[in-house]
Amino acid sequence: MPTAIDGASLPSRFRLTSIDKTHIHDKLPRLTPRKKAPPPQNPLPVPATPPLSTPVDPQNLHFHEPTRRILSPHDHELFQASPTYGLILSFVFSLSEAAADKKISSAYQDKIPDVIERILSVLSAVEETISQCPPADQGGSRFGNPAFRDFLDNIAFQSSSWHSLIGVPSSSAIAEVGTYLHNSFGNRARLDYGSGHELNFIIWLLCLNRLSILPSSTFSGLALLVFPRYIKLMRKIQSTYYLEPAGSHGVWGLDDYHFLPFLFGASQLLHHTYIRPLSIHNELILEEEGDEYIYLDMVRETMASKSVKGLKWTQPMLDDISGAKSWEKVEQGMRRMFVKEVLGKLPVMQHFLFGGLVPAAEGMSKEEELGVKPEEDEKEGGELVVEPDGVKHVHRDDAWGDCCGIKIPSTVAAAQEAKKKGEEDGFRRIPFD
To answer: How many whole angstroms separate alpha carbon 189 and alpha carbon 376?
Structure first.
């Protein structure tokens, strides 16, 4: 029969000890509620719009044919610290602000300024020139069509009369201003087009502003009428002459050719009541509102030109941006991108042209001093570096070579060639999507 065991006779490890329950809560770790992590902050400040300076009296200007002056990283740094840099920022951001919360159709509610009408007529004349310079037989090739060079030569021939129509005061001024228009449609040697050529068109408008031909009262018309007309013209030029995207990866996933339509377009949608950034995935909204809003029109055109369905496959950056909470965030991001990825990129800005209206900073290099060939004589157009034995073409080691990377045929060329062959026009889905 079991007998009771005296606790005192057990080893200490088996003895039951009393627990002081009054202080047990002090021995337990305290539970603290988890705080939601703050959203990551963009280290780059939102670029502000500098004040636009008053145009200089043309009689005090010395006009000359624009040339490249950014031939080294040091030149690029001088440019970024110059008044011309601030002038470009001011003009571009002022155009964007002039489009804020406005539909394209709103520009027709008031009388269109005569100078805007004349600029639109020039763009129509450029479009008519395409029919005068038909593309050569490609033989199935999807790369640039050499007839594009005839088109540019024709543009140069008509330039003087067009600028006289607009009101450019002298032949020397026309020679300078016209250079930017000639370089707005693509590169003659490489048969390509990119954000640098788009910037040339903006500088052309800026030169007209510096000549007091385009005052600030016309900025809304420039952003809502002239610039969209230029984009539509470029689509026809790109599809006719199969212009290749400048660089080897398109414009950072936004579009193969353009950037500024997304800045101006985001400004249009800043406080829209129902169109959100995520709405770019709604085909009905794109169809119904694309004619009124530049951003939606760009997305609509991008989707129509691709053979694969889904922005996440074809334009991943556009797909990522669609997750933004507001158009204000999108517009701020586009401002940052313009500063960093356009004006801040040497491979883009080394092609920028400086003249009397858009002057270079003191100390910047000159082509003739360094023995650099003019832009039209270069086939690669790659990044330049100044070395003791001269200026050389180099390849970047941190990207795909924005300068001269792998030649990439345009998607519009692929679509046009497919139509010629009678292939079915439709989307091809990615497996497992």
So the answer is: 6
Which residues in 66-77 are b (16+ Cβ under 10 Å) and which e? bbbbbbbeebbe
Residue 217 C-alpha from the chain's centroid:
25
Given a contact cutoff of 8 angstroms between Cβ atoms, the answer to whether 324 and 332 are in contact is no
pLDDT tens track for 83-92: 999 999 999 9
Model confidence, pTM = 0.83
Is 201 in contact with 181 (CB distance < 8 Å)? yes
Alpha carbon distance 360, 317 (integer Å):
33
Residue 230 to residue 426: CA distance in whole angstroms: 27
Give the 3-state secondary structure of residue 384.
Answer: strand
CA 368-369-374 angle, 5° bins? 25
Distance CA 327, CA 361 (A): 35
| One-letter identity of residue 70 | I
- Phi then psi for residue 192, to 5 deg, are -135, 175
255-305: pLDDT as tens digits: 889 999 999 999 999 999 999 999 999 999 999 999 999 999 999 998 887
HSE (side-chain half, CA atoms, 13 Å) at 199: 21
Judged by DSSP in three states, 428 sits in: strand
Segment of 43-47, 241-245, 395-399, 404-408 carrying the highest mean pLDDT: 241-245
What are the residues facing 392 on neighbouring strands? 385
Q: Answer yes or no: is pLDDT of 397 > 50.
A: no
CB of 135 within 8 A of CB of 147? yes
Report the C-alpha gap between 401 and 403 in whole angstroms: 5
Span between the terminal Cα atoms of the chain, in Å: 76
Distances (CA, A) of 33 to 25, 30, 36: 18, 10, 10
Whole-number Å distance between alpha carbons of 357 and 72:
22
Nearest of 399, 400, 397, 393 to residue 72 by alpha carbon: 393
Give the sign of the dihedral formed by CA 177, CA 183, CA 185, CA 189: positive
Average pLDDT, integer, range 228-254: 83
Decide the pairing of beta strands 353-354 and 67-68. antiparallel
Least confident among 57-71, 306-320, 365-379, 395-409: 395-409
